Amino acid sequence: MTNRYIDLVNQTFDFPQEGFEVKGGYLYFHDLPLKTLIDTYGTPFKLSYLPKITAQIEKARNWFKTAMAANDYQGEYHYCYCTKSSHFRYVMDEVLKNKVHIETSSAMDIDLVDRLFEQGKINKTTIIINNGFKPILYTKKISALINAGFKNVMPVLDNVEELEQYEQFTNGSTCKIGIRVATEEEPNFEFYTSRLGIPRAKVLDFYQEKIANSPKFQLKMLHFFVDKGIKDNMYYWNEFKKVLKLYCQLKKVCPSLKAINIGGGLPIKNSLGFEYDYPYMINEIVSQIKTACQEEQIEEPDIFTEFGKFTVGESGAVIFSVLGQKLQNDAELWYMIDNSIMNTLPDTWGIQERFLLLPINRWNNEYRRVNIGGLTCDNSDYYNAEAHINQLYLPKYNNNDPEPQYIGFFHTGAYQEALCGYGGIQHCLIPMPKHVLVDKDANGNLKHWLNFKEQKLENVLDLLGY
Ligand SMILES: Cc1ncc(COP(=O)(O)O)c(C=O)c1O
Asked: Which of 56, 78, 85 to mutate to test ligand 1, by most ligand atoms within 8 A of the CB atom?
């Protein structure tokens, strides 16, 4: 038989590949026999494989280290974790083991910073970068951190009015700040300029008028973030070069300026066919900054990143059973799963995000084209296209086979929990799946435990007021 699922994968991709291999017809994720977890906990469940978080941070640091050495780059590299991609304590604990810095997005994030400080996981020298359009509660909480002696808190101004609030709320003699430059959106988007940040054309004047002669404010960082991610295309490099030019202009009039922050947007593997040359892209970023600084004869800035999805995305997975098959016409076969795609992976319908999807069992069976259907009544609760191909193939099976078909969506660790309102009311009251954490013990052996039991209907009814 050559039209087995495993043959399809072997013919289409390099397989096995990092994190994925098949033994005896069953899929392993980072040496973890997923069937064992299924037998232990039952589907559906979410899974977080914590060692991947540290591995990602180490990878990025090494790429920057190599690129900086190759370019004889004089500035430093700082890895900040964008908390909003996953706020969970188990994530923050793993992230902070690596002595990274933090980027916050809201007033509520500052309470989280307070907790981390109380727990001794960060200290008053941790760099804490504050982004976002800030309601007064947020600027007050940022100012409270500054007033409490956190030396490296750096609000990044989203608009010119924000500055006055730090004037009012901070009581020390100095306050470090950054400026976010609003990038232009991709040509096919509804708006020309990002709503976040200060328009590029206004930045220099704003600096000269409000910051240059201020005894209090020191502009330390220029920040930008291209929402579509760090991609090797004209649009990205154009935006990058515009900000770089502005950095050089600013640096000539602002000696305190020391850092450029390129935000997040480093992509992750969303299909077995994913190709992205990370070392090349990072080298290109470092060398372009170096060249621009040499041409303008200015000091090279420290480079900051705020990788969210890259840090935590590849640590997550969601595992389902197929409950039954429905052939709705000659061509449309549905694999109906035991939870909802919409609820568990909201980015799939919100922004048409693709995740790496693989069967857990029956790799030696023939494959066929399928659509995956969720349990809500919503016609958007489906998944039927992969990132590399506008179709979806999974192993064939018979309804009376004793073992159900299991499937897994992988690299789902960023944003999905917050967007689906972890532990809250879910569409059609489908209970939120349980959540399993996996880590390595001191001897490097895998251990796993339940972080969240399947949502109880009593709790849901309580929330609903019954
Ligand atoms: C300012 C800022 N930094 C970093 C990030 C993280 O982006 P990503 O998760 O794509 O790395 C975001 C995401 O929206 C952001 O708005």
From this structure: 85
* Residue 254 one-letter amino acid: C
Range of the domain at 171: 73-307
- Can you give the pLDDT at residue 1? 57
CA distance 154 to 217: 11
Please report the atom of ligand 1 found closest to the CA of residue 229: 10
State whether 91 and 222 are in the same domain. yes
Residues 214 and 344 in one domain: no
Measured in Å, residue 428 CA sits from the centre of ligand 1 at 30
Assign 465 to helix, strand or coil.
Answer: coil
Chunk the chain into consecutive blocks of 10 residues (it has 466) and report each block's average pLDDT, rounded to whole numbers.
90 96 97 97 98 98 98 98 97 97 98 98 98 98 97 98 97 94 87 91 97 97 95 96 98 98 98 97 98 97 98 98 96 97 96 96 97 96 91 94 97 96 93 96 95 91 94
Closest by alpha carbon to 181, among 231, 142, 131?
A: 131
The residue nearest atom 12 of ligand 1, judged by CA position, is: 264
Distance in Å, CA 390 to ligand 1 centroid: 27
pTM score of the predicted model: 0.96
Give the residue whose CA is nearest to atom 2 of ligand 1.
Answer: 263
In a domain, 379, yes or no: yes
Q: Residue 191: what pLDDT?
A: 83
Q: Which two tokens stand for residue 430?
A: 């489908």
Q: Which residue owns the Cα nearest ligand 1 atom 7?
A: 264
Q: Is residue 59 part of a domain?
A: no
Concatenated DSSP letters for 65-111?
A: HHHHHHTT--S-EEEEEEGGG---HHHHHHHHHTT-EEEE-SHHHHH
Query: Does any domain span residue 452?
Result: yes
Residue 219: give its domain's CATH number. Answer: 3.20.20.10
Which residues lie with the beta carbon below 6 Å from any ligand 1 atom? 82, 85, 103, 131, 225, 263-266, 306-310, 414
Residue whose Cα lies nearest atom 14 of ligand 1: it is 227
For the chain, the domain total comes to 2
Residue 108: CB partners within 8 Å, gap ≥ 6? none
Answer yes or no: do 322 and 299 share one domain.
Answer: no
If asked whether residues 361 and 428 sit together in one domain, one would say yes
What's residue 389's pLDDT?
Answer: 86
pLDDT score at 67: 98
